[in-house]
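User: I'm new to structure prediction. If I give you an amino acid sequence, what do you actually give back? Let's try with this one:
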Amino acid sequence: MAGAGGRSWRDLLAGRARKRKSSLGSEAELQEAALRLLDRHQNLGDLLLEVGDSAKPDVQDGAEHQGVSPGSFIVSVLQEQASKLGVPTATLAAKNAIANVERICQDSASPSRVPLLNSDQRKRLSCLLQTVKDLLANNVFCRSLFCQEMWKMKEPPVLEAVWHLHSADIAGLAELLERSPAGPAAVEWLCSSLCGLCEQAGDIPCGDMELAQRILSDFAIVFLQNGFEQASELGRKVEFQKVSYICRAVLQRMLAWVLDAVGKEKQEDVSMVQAARFWLNVFNVSLYGSVAHPDSLRQFFRHTLTEVLTYNPVLKVSDAIQMQKEWSFTRTSPLLTALYRKLLVAFSVKESICQLQQVLETHEVNWQHVLSCVSTLVVCQAEAEQLFKDLLSHLLLKAFGNYDMENMITAFLIARQAALEGPAVFMPYSEWFKASFGNAGGHHGSSKKTLVFLFEFLSELVPFEAAPYLKVHIMYPPFVPTKHRSLLLEYITLAKTRLADLKVAIEDMGLYEDLSAADEAVQPQAQALRDVEKALQIFENTKKIPTSVIEASIFRRPYYTSWFLPALLRPRVVSTWLFSLPLPSAVCLCTDNLPLTWPFPLLQLPKTPDGHMAFIDSLKRADKIPSNLYSTYLQACQAMKEKVLQDDSKAEPSHSKEPFEQLKAELAELRTLVVDQAQWEDVAAQLAAVSDRLRGVLGDSSEDNEAAPFNSPVQVAVPGPRLAPCHQSVVDLLLTSFCQTLLAASSFNPPDRQGPCLSLLVKMMCGHRNLLPALLGRLCQLIYHQGPSLHATHILGLAAFVIHLSECRALIPGVEADFGVSQAVPGKALSVSEYWSSLLVCRTEESFAFCLRFCTAAAAYLMCKFSSCSHEEFCALIPPGLIKKLQYLVPRLSLEARGILCQEANTALSWTSLSCPSLNDRRASLCLWRQAQFQELLKEKAFQLSFREWLLMELEVCPEKDILSASERQDFHYWAIYQRYLPAPSAAGGCDGDLEKACGVIINAILDSSQRLDLGGCGQSKMSVSPEILCRLQELVLELRCRPKLFPGCSPARRHVVLEVLQGRLRGRQHGSALGEQLWRQQELLLHRRILVGLPASALVTTCWRGNKTVLDCDSFFCFVNSELKNVCSRGYALSYDITAHFFRGLLNASLDCEDAAEGVSEALTTCQTQCPVVLLSAAFWWPRLEPGLCCQWKRLFGAPLAQELDRLRGWHGSSTRFLCSGAAFPVSDPPWLSAAFLHGAILQQSPRGRGRQALERLGTDAEQLLVALLFFSLLDLISARIAPKQEGVDFQTSLEWSLEILQCLEERGTSWPLLFHSAERDPGQCRVLRSAASDRHTRLLPLAFCSLTPCFQRELLQREPTFLSVALQMYIQLLQLFVEGQVLSQSDQDLTEHDPLELISAARRFLLGAIPHCPAQSFGSTQPLLSACEGLDPELAATLLHFSRPAVDMELEEELELF
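Assistant: Good question. You get back a string of structure tokens that encode the predicted 3D arrangement of the chain. For your 1460 residues, that looks like this:
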């Protein structure tokens, strides 16, 4: 009711009050007059709206000044009207309010019903609500009647109006629903209104959007509270049960509406999808907070998840088998994955999977929804992998226990679905199938019945299977006992038939095809190209043709000739056969405010055949490429080269950039999510999208290896890592993206507050196994080859990357790092942490600076990123190599780190400061070193740098390029050895103060380093020994000799620590005939000799107390020479000059401790004749060079005549010289072999061979033993000329002629000499001594020397020497065995026809075949033990020997038997 000008009733009253005083005397009179006026002109509907405006604050006087309350006024009006109508006042008020609500909702400018009011409607409704509140306050409004009357409206109320009534606590939604006469009608109204609200939400202003969200959230709370009440509330009256039904029905209908929208998402119905996404806000857990009971909330989410999984179950299992590859995480509707992710927040991963299992067991399910839920779980929940493995085991157990096909198919579908998401989140299907059925311990192996069950199941799958799964079943078949093999063969036949129907031939399957991929079979052409790439990688790492290629060329000939060879022999442009190490000249990294560039220039290409051409040549040499095909390939290459030159263009493979650009865009989107903590929940989904794009760029998910595709090591050629062209740009993009993301995230938060995003990114990379070789190879290029040239930000990014790489070590197989010539023998496969630690080599000033910065950044990132972990978890994450590298670097480069720590342990290292180019590396590393947390890590045994590890690192340094000067390096060595490691306990990597232990560690480290490293470009070779470390060893050895002087009763002898260590290294190795073992042993002994020569000479000889005097103790040295050192001696019977001279110097020096030095020396040399004759033979060989130094040293030490035995040695040399030069008689003394050694040496040095023959004739009649010894030495020279003519400086023909002259002289004298070739045990005399002095290799090759003499043997020798036949036969058999083992080979620089080993064997054989018939009968007695060996090597010779060895009687009997 409005006055003139639209003024309200209240305004009119107030105006009247201001204009004049009331003529009525009292308030009662005034009220009575007003009621009379209203009675004549009343409209209760308008009155409720007008009086409701009383809340406005601009009313200052008037009626209120008169004490008239608008609420009491309208109550009076209603009471008056109600009394006239005879109805209760509350009823009248409720009906009038309903009329107003209906009129307000109908007054809409929109032609269709909308869920929201316009501004005028909201204003009028607000007035009405205020009035109704006043009526409620005066208890004259019937709430229940109001709710009941609302359902009688001609048109249902607008949803917003209902919400206002609900939020104003006038008529709650639950109360309203309780009064509804028909539940389905209420459900229909609510669902249509809610759908309209969701559809309108995308096209309304921001303020209305907030209102719509409030309406939805308030109503959702009502639905939850009433639809999923607790057990204590279930006994309520029927009306409330109706409310529960309506709420559940509304939620059900709306969920169906959303799921229908999922099906329309691919039809690009954007508005429908947007509206459904708005409804998903109902499933935000945070929405319900404390207003809903936790159990009710979980019940609601559990019910919803069940409804989703069971919605519209029209797909059959066969459909799921064929279509599930389309239901992976990235291919599933984003609307559906968003719904899953919201629902699963309410449960733990275990609860989610249990709910999934329960639904599968009790309901008919929608397989698309079930499997897409599985994908969502494994992608978004890291713990899901193991729980799904447990579920699969449980399903298989139940399936085989009850022979239940449903559990079987469920297990297979889940395993395949999880495997679709890649190995970063779940094991490949091929691995699961092998693990479940590939061994006898599987569920199927318990009985024949279980086997039949399995193969029946697999057979039923065959008509629906995709080719990759059939290939898995064929290539990795279930384990089947031999007696049931037919079951497997029947299945394989069926599977191959299905493959044939799919036009996929198992014969065309690639050599390295990924059997875990769920995509359709790759075309043979594409697979062949991948096989060629993989085969090239294996070939370049092993230098051998891969076994799979060899096998394919034999057993899979159609694929090899039709696909593999054409892919390998594709024409290409090659300029002088180039080997390319692909490195980008500029790979740009850009963040919003920090441009980064990898400053790596392209490497110069060597002018040698590249790996591709070398592989082709190897196949050609092995007759694996037909000649015509090879010629065609070369012609095609030449034609392409000419065409390219004409076109002035390069022939490079063209790759589609679209997938690459898509990957780049997805990575950029990921970066925006990482920097915003509110969007971290979307990171897992985005990473799945990145992984899918990456799979598209790479062509497939993961590659199989020849033997073990999942665990096979990744091979990296460290000197020249090769990246496949198709992977090069991808790896650079991933590393670039990682660095950009890290820097972007670090600009907002420190690493410990950046969330798991970077960890998940690296884990995703590791899941693509075919990317790992390129990724690890690229790391090798960046760290090992270009490390010092990296920018500070690059170092920071790479340091963080390797930390996350180590965090994902379980996903990365071992790494076989081939260091080329610097690696003596292949090492064990390294973990990824060990691999990148091995790339951080510290040799030059630049590499020291890089390693320090890199390790400091990595450790700082690690300590900050994982600071919230427990101590045990933190230690498990730390790569030990990183902490050990810092323990080596920081004290070496910072003097402060070598002393006692100052009270600065709490100094913090700023993470952001590490990217500053002006950062002082030493200061930053020292700051890290002083942190208490880092110092605590150093106390852990796993992270302590041992003395040996420190030595190996120090031995890698190039002294002339070191960052330290020589004096600084010496100071560092003294600190490390004498202050740090020598006194430290062994538990901390020290030596417990034990000098002997320290010496042993240094010797072993020197030898290991020399065997392991080739410091190319640093001025050191493999056979060099670090002079500075050797000096420290010399000092320690001299300290060892600083002991109290020996007295009677002391220990018999001091231990010879050095020799014990050297012998201990060799004792652990096997004396094998393998070439690698022989080379290692030879190199090891040469290093031993260099170390011994580098130590003080007195270290070789010790003293001991024996009887009543001090004597020289050479036993340890003699033992070492006899067992090892003689095997690297000159000509097979003389040690090298350096070690010989060193021993004699040490002998003389040690004799100073003896009471009688001359006697001590003489006794030692006399002992040497029987215990170590090779030392005296060495002295005889080197005497002209040895004598001056010995005589000078003796004179300097003692000033007395030479010791008796030394003087005898000098005398033998003088006699030999005079015998050859002046014709004087040669006195033969005891032992004759020593006289012979001096004479042999003199003949080699002074006399032409012609005069040597004359000298032999002048020897006396007592010189037979001397001549035998001369023959032995000449035969050893003959062997040396055969195996190492350049090294030993001897000529084979000359040595052979000299040996024949000595042999002729012996024959003329009738002297027996074959005993030289018997084993040492059979002759206790001179021959045993001579053979014991020879090296093992020369002794083994004595048959070579013997057979070289066979052309000159006389027939009389057979009669005179009964044992000669057995010796000759034994030598021949041993020569054949040597030939079979490859020990007898012609030298490349010798005439093959003159010294062909086959010719030598033939000559010896002809000699034996001709000699056997002429041997006396007693000669055959000793040949019987050799017959079996001879029969295996030369049956014809054995038959001849057997024929002539039989007695004459047996011969006659045999002839008689032949008559019958």
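You can read the tokens as a compact description of the fold. Here is one thing that stands out. The chain has 66 helices and six strands.
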